[in-house]
Amino acid sequence: MSCYYIKLEKGRKKAFPVTSAEEYKSLRSSKAHLTNLALARKGNEKAKQRLIQFNYSCLPNEDGSLKGATQLSSSVGMDIDHIPAEQLPGVIAKVLEKKEALGLLMLERSARGEGLHVVFKRHPELNNVENLQWASELLGVEFDKGAKDITRVFFATGNTEDDLLYLCEELFENGGVNTTVILSESEESQSNITQSSLDGDSSLTFRMTKEGEEGQSSLDGDSSLAFRMTKGNEEGLSGMTREKEEDASPLNYSGIPYSAIIQKWWEMYNDGQEPVKSNRDVLTFELAVNLRHICGFDREILDKVIPCYDGFPEVQKLKCIDSALAERRTQMPKRIKDVLNAFRQDQLKDANGTDSELLNALDEMQKADELYHYDKLPKMPKGVKESIDAAGHNLALPTLIAIAPAIGALATDVKLDVHGRVKGLNLMSFIVGEFASGKGQLDDVIAAWMKELQTETDMYTQQEEEWASKTKRMKSGKAPEQPQLPVRMLTLNNTVANIAERLSNTEGKHCFSFTPEADNVALKWKQSVSDFSVMLRQAYDEARYDREAKSADAVRVHIDKLLWNVTMCGTQDALYRVITNYTDGLLSRISIARTPDNTFSPLDTHPAQLTPKQSESIQEIAHLLPFMKGNITLPKLEERGREWLEMIRLEAIKNDDRVLARQRMRGCVNAQRITCALMLPRVAEQLIKKFGVNGTEVRLKKDPSMWIETMEKLQNQEMLQLFDTVADYLLDNDLYFFRERIEQAYESKNYAASSNSIRARRGRNDNIFERLSTDYSFEQAYQQSVAVKGGMTTHNSVRQMLKNWCKQGLIYQSNDGMYHKSATTVGH
Fold first, then answer.
1. In what order do the strands lie in the sheet with 413-418?
2. Which of 218, 592, 618, 627 has minimal CB crowding within 10 Å?
3. Residue 422: strand pairing partners
C-alpha cells in the first residue's frame, strides 16, 4: 500500500509519504484546500489545480520526483469519471458492498463531485492496466482510460462523510515496499556486494567481500549500516541502490542547516531570544509563515525543523504551522530573504573565501522568486506576449500592469460592466523599483503600443509650433486664432492648467501619459499634488471635471467625462511622494506593481530587448484597438470577481483586518478592467487569423461591435486564471507598500483623547488596550496585537501604537522597558 502527497518544487512534482490517517485527513482539512474545493465545485478550474494531490499507485524515483517513476506500489488508484447523478449513489453502494473482494483502501467523491476515486489492493501478478480492468469488471463500471498511468495524481476532496466515503488504515502501511539498510563510511567504501536476499520483514542478510575476504552479516532495521533494497512483485529483489540515508545529515536548505537559519532569524528579529511561553504562539506562527517558502510549503519539514519552544505542546505547534500554511501564498517575504542574504554576507567576510554552493543556491532562489508570477500566467495573446518577452520574464507582471492603461486608452470606446456599473477601461499604474532594477525595459514596450498615437501627437504639436512662430511675427491684432487640436499623448512635465486644457479637447477619447521618472511628477506637481490626485480620481470614475478662473485669460475647463489613463515608473521614495494621502481614494485606484529585487543578481549575459519583429506584432494589435466599440458584460469574469471579493472578505474578518477589507474593493475592479484590457489583444489576434489585419479593420469599421461576440467566448479558464493572478498581485503590493501607513492613517482618528485622557473606544487598538494588563512588556503588546489584527502585524506598527498611547497620556514607559497604564485609564 502507498499514499504520497504530491507537491510542485521548482517545476517538478515531488512525492512525500503520508504515514497515517491522521496526517492524511489533516492535509485534506486545511482552510486553503477547502476554499479551493468549494470554488472548484463551482467550475473554477484554477482552484481545482490548487487542490492537494495524492498518488496511490507507484513509488517515487530516488530523488523523490514522480515523473518517469516505474516502481509499482502495492495499491492502485482508480478514477471513475462522469457518473450520472442519479446513478452515483448506486455505484457508491456497490463499491462499499464489495469492499472485501476489492480490497478497498479508500473511496472518495471526485473534486467536481461527478465521479469517484477508488484505491484498492494491487494484484501483483497483474500490471496496472490489468488491475484497473479487473476492478472495473468487479464493480461493473468503466474507469477513466486517460488515468491508467501509475504516476497519475488524484485531486483530494474534504473529510466529510459525503466526500471521504471510506478509509482504511492499511493504506498507509508501506512495509515490504522500501527496506533501508545503512553502511558505515569505512565499510561502505571498501565493500562489494555479490549476493543478497530478504530474510523475513525485519532483517536483511547479504554476502560481501571486504578487502578480498568473504564474510556474512545480518542487519536488523536498527542497524547503522545499510543498503536501500526494493522488493518487486516477485520473490527476492528487483533493484538495489547504494546511498546514504537522508537522516544521516541534518535537514538543510542549500547546505545551510535549518537550525542555523532559525538561529539567525531570532538574532535578526527577536534580539537573539528564542520564544517563551508568553509569545511562543505568535512567534512560531510568524517563523512558519516565512520559513514555509524555503521548506517547500511542506508541513512535515516545518514540523521537524521548528522546535517546541519553552514546553510548547506538539499539537499546538502544529496548529501554528497549519495556520501559516493556510495563509495566502505570495512572493518570498523580504525578512526570510534578508536572513539568507545575511549568510551570504557572512560567507563574503570569511577569510577562507566564499561558499560557491551557497551563493549559487541564493542566486537560484532569487531567480525562482523573480519568475514566481510568470510561471502562474496563462498563455498570453499576441502583442502582450511580445511585451513580456521584450521586458524580460522576471518583469512579467509589472509589464502587464504597465501596458494595461495604454491598451485601455487605445480601446477608448470599449466599456466594461463591473458590478453593474458600465465604464471605460480607465486605469492608472505605478511600477515601483530601485534604480537599475529593469524599469527602463518598459520604455520601448510602451512606445511600441503608442506609436500611432504618438505620431499623431507629434503632427499636432508641429502645427501648434508653426502657429506660435507665425504669431510672433504678426501684429497682435492680426494674430490667427490658436488651433484646438486633440493632442492625446500628454507629458506629465506640465502645469495643472495646461493638462486640464488638453484633457478638455480630446473629442471624447482617452488621453494617455507615461513617465519613466515619477520624480518629475513629484517635483512639477509639488504645490498642486492635490489637484493631480483629484484629476486622476475623477478620470478613473469618468466623472465631470470643472476648473474655473478669475482672470479672463486664465484657463477655464468644463469636461463632461474626464478620460485619462496614466502609467508611471519610479522608486519607492517617488511613490510615497506621489501618493501622500492614504485614505482619499487615489491609492485604491492606482494599480501598483514592483520589479523584483535584483540587488545580488548576476549581470544577465543576454538581456531582453524589443526586436523589430516584436514591435511589429505589438503595433498590429494596437492599430486595431481604436476600431473596437461597444459595451460588454462578462458574467463569468464578474462571478469570479465576486468570489474573489468574498474570499478576501472572509480572510479579513478572520483577522479583523480593516486594511485588507478596504483595499480588496477597488482592487477587484482594477483586476477586472486589466483582465479585459489584456484579453482585447486576444480578440484582435483571432480576428487577424480569420480576416488578416486589413480585413479586420474593414469589418470593424462597418460593425464596430463585432468583436463583442468573440470576447464573450473568451471567458474561459485562461481569462479567469489571469484575473486571479492579477487580483492577488495588486492586493499584495498595496499591502506591501502601504499597510502600515494606512493603519496609522485610520488609527490617527481613533487616538484623539478627550480632555480627561479617558480613551474613546472606536477601533481595534481599543480592543488591544483592553486586553492588556496594567503592566506589560512590548512582547505582550505585540502578542495581543496579533491576536486582534492577525499574523501580518509588524513590530513597527506596535511600536507606533505604543508611541501614540504615550503621547496621549494613556500609558508611560519605565526605565526597565515595561509599559504601565496611567491611573486615569486603569479599568477602562
1. 421-424, 413-418, 629-632
2. 218
3. 417
Cα–Cα distances in angstroms (integers) from residue 577 to residues 47, 373, 492, 570, in the given order: 38, 28, 15, 10
Beta strands 545-547 and 53-55: pairing type?
A: unpaired
Contact 131, 122 (CB under 8 A): yes
CB 783 within 8 A of CB 796: no
Rounded-to-integer distance, Cα 522 and Cα 500, Å: 18
CA nearest neighbour of 432 among 738, 797, 793, 740: 738
Closest CA to 579 of 360, 741, 336, 795: 741
Query: Residue type at 94?
Result: K
As a whole number of Å, the end-to-end CA separation of the chain is: 61
Closest CA to 669 of 593, 723, 738: 723
DSSP labels, 451-468: HHHHHHHHHHHHHHHHHH
The DSSP letter of residue 580 is -
Please give the Cα distance from 428 to 421 (Å, whole number): 18
Please write down the long-range contacts of 57-62, taking CB distance under 8 Å and 24 or more positions apart.
57/2, 57/128, 57/150, 57/151, 57/152, 58/2, 58/150, 58/151, 59/2, 59/177, 59/178, 59/230, 60/4, 60/14, 60/15, 62/241, 62/243
Task: For residue 241, give Cα distances in angstroms to 14, 59, 219, 302.
Answer: 20, 15, 17, 29
353-to-27, 255, 346 alpha-carbon distances in Å: 43, 16, 10
Q: Decide: helix, strand or coil at residue 802.
A: helix
Site of grid cell 536572513: 339
pLDDT digits (tens, 9 = 90+) for 731-760: 989 988 888 888 777 766 443 333 333 334
At 271 the three-state DSSP class reads coil
For residue 3, give the nearest of 168, 163, 171, 231 by alpha carbon: 171
Q: Cell match 469519471: residue?
A: 81
Three-state DSSP state, 558: strand
Pair 434, 686: CB distance under 8 Å: no
| CA max distance for the chain | 118
Q: How many CB atoms lie within 10 A of CB 413?
A: 18
Side-chain-facing half-sphere of 511: CA atoms under 13 Å: 27
pLDDT (tens digit, 9 = 90+) per residue, 509-545? Answer: 999 999 998 887 777 777 677 788 889 999 999 999 8
Q: Is the pTM of this model over 0.70?
A: no
- Number of residues in the chain: 828
CA 29 → CA 11, 37, 159, 326, 381, distances in Å? Answer: 25, 10, 7, 10, 37
Helices (H), 703-826: 707-713, 717-750, 764-771, 778-789, 795-807
Q: Alpha helices of 504-555 — where are they, by DSSP H? A: 519-524, 529-541
Of the given ranges (6-20, 254-268, 670-684), which has the lowest mean pLDDT? 6-20
pLDDT > 90: percent of the chain: 33
Model confidence over 562-585: pLDDT tens digits?
A: 999 999 999 999 999 888 888 878
Q: Which residue has the cell 488491475?
A: 131
Provide the residue type at 446 as one letter. Answer: I
The distance from CA 105 to its chain's CA centroid, rounded to whole angstroms, is 35
b (16+ CB within 10 A) / e for 660-674: bbbbbebbbbbbbbb
Going by their DSSP bridges, the two strands 811-813 and 213-220 should be labelled as unpaired
In angstroms and rounded to an integer, the radius of gyration of the C-alpha atoms of the chain is 32
Residue of higher predicted confidence among 474 and 557: 557
Element spanning 198, H or E: strand 191-199
Chain centroid offset of residue 324 CA:
15
Structure letter (DSSP) for residue 620: H
Q: Classify 153 as helix, strand or coil.
A: coil
pLDDT at 556: 80
**Where are the extended beta strands (E) located within 615-654?**
629-632
- Whether the CB-CB separation of 512 and 536 falls below 8 Å is answered with no
